[in-house]
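RECORD CONTENTS
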Amino acid sequence: MNLPKIRDDLSLLDGYHSPQVDVEIRLNTNESPIPPPIKLAEDLGQELLKVNWNRYPDRMASQLHRDIAKFHNVDSSMVLAANGSNEVLQSLLLTYGGFGRKASVFEPTYALHSHISALTGTEVIIGECSKDFTIEESTVNAVLQQGPDVLFLCSPNNPTGVVAEREFVESVIERCSSLGTLVIIDEAYGEFSDWSAVDLIREGSHIAVTKTFSKTWSMAGIRLGYVVAPSEIIENVRNVVLPYHLDSMKQIAGSLALQYIDDMHSRIDLLIEERERMARKLSDLPVRQWPSGANFILFRPSDEAKISGESLWEALLERSILVRNCSSWPRLEGCLRVTIGTTEENNSFLEHLEAILV
């Protein structure tokens, strides 16, 4: 029996994944090394006992949307949650992208922006970041001249850690609004930054800000994300998502997590402190690193180290330490990205790194 052919534009497209390897120290996927409070898990267990599992979940996820809206001080009509921020991105592209439309990205950046664009049949326009991984005005102008329907900004950017300046983002939104282009700002690591583009959202504005519970909320295991945008955009995206797509457990877990805001901020403070400590230690080793506003650091062995990024990644793996090998990503030859872990994990990483390099 002959199966139907897949779409021609997907035939050469590789799937997106990060290695899942059995190691002692896993610092490759930017998860929080600190779990949420035990009380949250206990509360969740009690709430799940009350769920009528034979019934569909609340299709509108009303309580969760109200709780997220309260956290951001917006109306609940401006929030839509989904199964991780990746489903949010996919839904936005199904709504505003698709065949005959274009999405622009600035490389290097989160690979799924281009990947999901391709999956939805959206043509990808690529702009190149500068040597310090910032985005120059001339690059934005060149991209906008190609008429994108969607423009992606990622801040703090993954995998570089660069935080976009508020004035720059405001200018991009203003220009895109005049052209009818939707600006999607990926703030998966936004709580590590000192400002959020959510503050720029107004009814009628051409901006959607995506967030996730996976990083700063320490809940990667439940796969929950959301978008904050003008209510008109949210209503349009609602027409794309599948019915009952957000199960009861996710809705309850998300609402419970939002009761522990102080714990979330405490974890962020600890990770920032560890990130800065790691950056100081890395400055004493033969590597080049880039300043980060997220929970990871991008680095590359220098010529003095006399080892390639690929070989360094393998040497760390042999010592049961897994970091992200970014060498095949655009503009990142020889680069590795290390997630900030616990103090003990970070110390072990630094000790082994020094032993390999020095």
Residues 51-260 form a domain with the Aspartate Aminotransferase; domain 2 fold (CATH 3.40.640.10). The first strand starts at residue 25 and ends at 27. The chain has two domains: 8-36+262-357, 51-260.
